[in-house]
Amino acid sequence: MSKYSEQFKLSIIQQYLSGSVGYKQIADKHNLHHSTVRLWIKLHAAHGIGGLVKKFSHYSAEFKLSVLQHMWAADLSCWQVAALFNIRNRGIISHWERCYHSGGLEALIPRKRGKPKQMPLPSPTEPSESLPDPAERTHDELVAEVNQLRMEVAYLKKLGSLSSSAEAAEYDNAQKTQVVTELRPYFPLSALLELAGMPRSTFYYQQKAAQACDKYAGLKKQIAAIYARHKGRYGYRRITLAIRQLGEKVNHKTVQSLMRKLGLKSLVRPKKYRSYKGEVGQAAPHILKRCFEANGANQKWVTDVTEFKVRGEKLYLSPVMDLYNGEIIAFETSRHPEFALVGSMLRKALKKLKHDERPIMHSDQGWQYRMSAYQRALQEKKVVQSMSRKGNCLDNAAMESFFAVLKTEFFYLNKFGSVDELQRGIKKYIHYYNHDRIKLKLKGLSPVQYRTQPWVT
C-alpha cells in the first residue's frame, strides 16, 4: 500500500463516494485488488485523511489483546476492527487471534528485531590437494577447460531464459531439448547431453515430438470462429453441436480441452458469489450428514448466503431455514457481503429459541461461519455447529433448493428498478413462502400452518 500516494488514494475514495460505480469496478479500472480499495475506503471513513498516510507501527501485547477483546465484544470482523484501530495489515489481526488462543498473552509479545549474532567463523584450513599450476598444463587442456566453461555458461543462460524457476532440476526434458538444439552448432552433442543429464534417445524423441504438427490446428480455428460469431454466448457443448452440423465428428471433451487451452469460456453465466476464502478460522465437522428431516421445530437449522444483481448493483440475502417444516425463521439483506449481514441474521434466529432448545446450525465453509464471533454466539446458546465438506454443495441441498425456488418463482419473473425495490419484494415473498405457499410434503399446508397444526397420525 505504501507505493501509492495519499492523493491517489483520495481520488479513488472520491470516485467511490460519488456513487456511480462500486469498489470492485474502481479496482479493475486502476488495476488494483478490490480488497485494497475497500480498506482505503474504511480507513478514510474512520480516520479521515490521516488513515491514508503511510504508517509503521509496533504493537504491544496489551494493545493486541485490547483489539481482540473489542472485536469479540462488538462482533466485528477483522476488516472492521482493522479500520477502526487504523491497522494497515488487515491479516495480522487473525494472526493475533490464533496466537492468543494457542499461547495466551505471552504469544502476543513482539519478538526482538534485528539480525541475530553470528557464530564465529571457523579458521580456514589448508586444502588437501592444491590446484594444478596453469604453467604445468598443456595448451590443449586449457582450451578444453575454457570451452567446457563457455558451454556451461551458455547452457545455464538459455535455460534460465525459458522459465522464472531458479532450479535446473525443475526444467522438463522438452525445455532441455530446446536448449541443446540451439547450442548444438557450437558445442559437441555428447557434451551437451552429459551436461543436461539427458539420454540421447530422450533427446531425439523430444525433438521429433516438437517438430510434429498440431493435429487440432484446424479444429481450433473452427472453435475460435464459432465462438467469435456468437459473441461468446456458446459454451463447449453448443460449439460441439455446431461443428457436428458442419459434418465433422468431434468429441465434446476434445472441444472443452481445446477451449480451455485457447482461453475461451462462455460469457452467458456470470461468476457466482463464493463465500469460501481459504483456511480462515476453524471449520466445524459435518454433523448433519445430509439428513434434512427433523421430528420437531428448532432441531435442525440450515443457512447460507446468496447474491442478486439488479442494474449493476448487488444485494445479498442470508436466511435461516428450519428443516422441520422448511420455514424461514429469520433473514437479513445487505448490499455488501460483510459479517454484519450474517451476524444480524443469527441474532434474530437465536432470539426465537426457548431455554431448552439446542438445534444444529448447518452451513457451508464460508468465512462468515468460521469467524470466532459467529462461533462464540452459537456456543453461548449451546447450538451445535455443522459445516458442509469443502466444495460439496449437496451437503446443504435444502438451503440451495430454497434459493432455487426463490429465484424461479420471484426474482426471474419480475423486473426491478432498484435494489431497494428488490429488497422489499424479498421481504414480501418470504412472508408469502412461510404463510401462504403450500407444500406437498407438508400435506398441502404452508410451513407456518404445518407448525401450528396439531399433529395428526
From TrEMBL:
<dbReference type="Pfam" id="PF00665">
    <property type="entry name" value="rve"/>
</dbReference>
<dbReference type="InterPro" id="IPR010921">
    <property type="entry name" value="Trp_repressor/repl_initiator"/>
</dbReference>
<dbReference type="InterPro" id="IPR012337">
    <property type="entry name" value="RNaseH-like_sf"/>
</dbReference>
<dbReference type="InterPro" id="IPR036397">
    <property type="entry name" value="RNaseH_sf"/>
</dbReference>
<dbReference type="InterPro" id="IPR050900">
    <property type="entry name" value="Transposase_IS3/IS150/IS904"/>
</dbReference>
<dbReference type="Pfam" id="PF01527">
    <property type="entry name" value="HTH_Tnp_1"/>
</dbReference>
<dbReference type="Pfam" id="PF13276">
    <property type="entry name" value="HTH_21"/>
</dbReference>
<dbReference type="InterPro" id="IPR002514">
    <property type="entry name" value="Transposase_8"/>
</dbReference>
<dbReference type="InterPro" id="IPR036388">
    <property type="entry name" value="WH-like_DNA-bd_sf"/>
</dbReference>
<dbReference type="Pfam" id="PF13333">
    <property type="entry name" value="rve_2"/>
</dbReference>
<feature type="domain" description="Integrase catalytic">
    <location>
        <begin position="281"/>
        <end position="455"/>
    </location>
</feature>
<protein>
    <submittedName>
        <fullName>IS3 family transposase</fullName>
    </submittedName>
</protein>
<dbReference type="InterPro" id="IPR048020">
    <property type="entry name" value="Transpos_IS3"/>
</dbReference>
<dbReference type="InterPro" id="IPR055247">
    <property type="entry name" value="InsJ-like_HTH"/>
</dbReference>
<dbReference type="InterPro" id="IPR009057">
    <property type="entry name" value="Homeodomain-like_sf"/>
</dbReference>
<dbReference type="Pfam" id="PF13518">
    <property type="entry name" value="HTH_28"/>
</dbReference>
<feature type="region of interest" description="Disordered">
    <location>
        <begin position="111"/>
        <end position="136"/>
    </location>
</feature>
<dbReference type="InterPro" id="IPR025948">
    <property type="entry name" value="HTH-like_dom"/>
</dbReference>
<dbReference type="InterPro" id="IPR001584">
    <property type="entry name" value="Integrase_cat-core"/>
</dbReference>
